[in-house]
Amino acid sequence: MKTLGIDIGGSAVKGAPVDPRTGRLLAPRLRIATPEPLTPLAMSRAVAEIARHFRWRGRIGVGFPGVVQGSRTLTSANLHPRFVGCDAGRLFAQATGCRVALINDADAAGLAEVTFGAGRRVQGTVLLVTIGTGIGTAVFSGGRLLPNTELGHLPWHGRSAERYVSSAARKRRGLSWASWARELGEYLRTLERLLWPELIVLGGGASSKSDKFIRHVRCRAKLVVASSGNEAGIVGAALCAAEPG
Q1: Mean pLDDT of 204-225
Q2: Domains 3-107+232-242 and 119-229 share a fold
Q3: Handedness of CA 75, 187, 146, 139 (dihedral sign)
C-alpha cells in the first residue's frame, strides 16, 4: 500500500508518495516554500496542494515540528502560534479529503532511520537529531519510540538549545562550520549524559552538508548521518500513515 508522506518544516513543506515496504520515494518530492509562518488554515491549503499535485486519494502521514498527541498539535516553536492546541490532523483531513495520521517530525525521521536506515537492528538506545530551522530529537530503545522528546528545547545557556545549535542559528550568529560544530558537540554530549545512546544519527537539512562539520563534532557514541538524509521525515510520516488503525 502506497502512502503519501508530508514533512512540515520551519521554512518549507515537502511531500512525496512512498512505498512503506521499502521506504523508497515513488516520485520526486514536491517542496513548497513557506518564508512566513502559515496559519493552520493556510498550512492545510499547502498540504492539500501537495496531495493534488500527486492526485492523491489514499492515506497521508504528516510530520509536524512540535508535540503531537493524537490529531492535535500542542506546541509550535517555529510555526504559527495558532497551531498550539489545534486539531491539525482534522484540518488536514478536511483539506485533502483523505485519512491523515499526524506525528512529530523528528519522530517521523527517526522511524525511517530505525526501519530502513542507520538505526536498523540497533537494540540499544538510538538518538536521532534533526538540524534545520530548529532542532528536533527522537529517542528509540530496542526499536521502540519514546514520542515527543523535543530536546531541542532543552534549556541551554539560559535559552532553548536550538537558539544556539540549529542550522538557522549558525547562519544568524555568523559562525564558521568548525565553531558551530564544536558547540553542537557540546550539546550532543549533554544529551549523552541524559540518555546514554549507543548511536546518534544526524538528520535534517544540515545533514546534506555533513562533510563541512561532522569531523569537528566530538561525542562518546557512534555518530552517523541519516541514510535517508533530508527525506527521512517524508518516509517516516508515510510509515506512520501505513500503520494499522
Answers
A1: 93
A2: yes
A3: positive
Q: Which CATH number fits domain 119-229: 3.90.180.10, 3.30.420.40, 3.40.640.10, 3.30.540.10?
A: 3.30.420.40
pTM across the whole model: 0.94
Per-residue CA distances from 31 to 88, 121, 193 (Å): 20, 31, 37
DSSP 165-209: HSHHHHHHHT--HHHHHHHHHHHHHHHHHHH--SEEEEESGGGGG
244 pLDDT more than 80: no
What are the residue ranges spanned by the domains of the chain?
A: 3-107+232-242, 119-229
Q: Is 45 left (phi over 0), alpha (psi -120 to 50) or beta?
A: alpha
Its CATH architecture, for the domain 3-107+232-242, is 2-Layer Sandwich (3.30)
For residue 218, the number of C-alpha atoms closer than 13 Å in the C-beta half-sphere is 5
For the chain, give the mean pLDDT: 95
Length of the chain: 245
- Taking residues 11-28, what's their average pLDDT? 96
Q: What local confidence, expressed as pLDDT, does residue 166 receive?
A: 94
